[in-house]
Write a structure and sequence with these properties.
9 helices; Alpha/beta knot; alpha/beta; 3 domains; three-stranded antiparallel beta sheet; about 20% strand; six-stranded parallel beta sheet
């Protein structure tokens, strides 16, 4: 047998061989998980661990999801939040340099919600295998888990605009998925505990028009913008290139400054969230 060509991937090997007198013979072999998937998973874990070490040492910032609103959400909202967090974690681990992530308020997130199904956020997260996620976990809310001087609570209602991400700081995203709008809830919680607040610098680049709330982003969109800025140090580029800004549910509410073509300035528009 003379092998004409051969190629391999993590899960599939295709070989083309030439047998005398019998023509070409195509062989497809399905492989189990081999070294490459294990190496990739190990590399992702190592990247997440290094990100947390850098944040603990003050060399980078920490992005924290505040899950202390869990008891005020119904089952559908708890599931929606778990879905958002799962997408954020998956997006982060595929970054060349993942960001350090933290979940705070897990005591409240473990309490059953207000709906008859009594599903907690933590229970909803189990379907995503979150017990294997490489994140910092804090039972109390962020204002008790971290020094107040290191905290900035990100909320669309804040009067101050966020201008930079600084090493050593903890930037909090409110994990409040609410099908019935609760305007000002995150801002009120932050102000009640003397936490500094800020909003993303969106006005120059985009306007969000939503029937229930104006200017509200999903957790995933907010995270992608922050991750994009940490990589590029360019807010305009971070907002334009965030995949969630071009996909449902946000896409139909987004109005780009100068029009979509002028705003994107990219080779192609993202078709879906990876």
């Amino acid at each position: 047998m003379q092998e004409a060509s051969s190629s391999a991937s993590d899960s599939l090997r295709v070989s083309l061989s030439l047998r005398p007198g019998s023509g070409l013979d195509l062989v497809i072999e399905i492989l189990g998980e081999g070294r490459q998937p294990r190496r990739k998973a190990a590399a992702e874990q190592a990247g997440a661990a290094q990100a947390l070490a850098d944040a603990d040492a003050g060399r980078s910032c920490l992005l924290c999801f505040d899950l202390s609103f869990g008891a005020s959400m119904c089952d559908a909202e708890a599931k929606a939040l778990a879905n958002q967090l799962g997408l954020c974690y998956g997006y982060n681990k595929r970054l060349e340099r993942p960001l350090a992530l933290a979940f705070a308020g897990l005591e409240q997130a473990s309490l059953p919600g207000m709906d008859d199904g009594r599903l907690s956020v933590c229970e909803a997260l189990h379907g995503w295998g979150w017990d294997r996620w490489h994140v910092r976990r804090e039972a109390p809310p962020p204002w008790l888990a971290f020094p107040l001087e290191r905290l900035v609570y990100l909320t669309a209602d804040a009067p101050t605009v966020l201008t930079d991400l600084k090493p050593g700081m903890v930037y909090i995203m409110g994990g409040l998925v609410d099908h019935t709008p609760k305007p000002g809830v995150a801002l009120a919680a932050a102000e009640a505990h003397r936490v500094a607040t800020a909003r993303l610098p969106l006005d120059e680049f985009v306007t969000i028009h939503k029937a229930s709330e104006k200017g509200t982003l999903t957790c995933l969109a907010c995270f992608q913008i922050l991750a994009g800025y940490e990589r590029t140090r360019d807010w305009g580029r971070a907002v334009r290139e965030a995949p969630a800004m071009h996909c449902a549910p946000l896409r139909k509410y987004v109005v780009w400054a100068g029009g979509l073509d002028a705003a994107l300035k990219m080779e192609r528009r993202p078709a879906r969230i990876a």
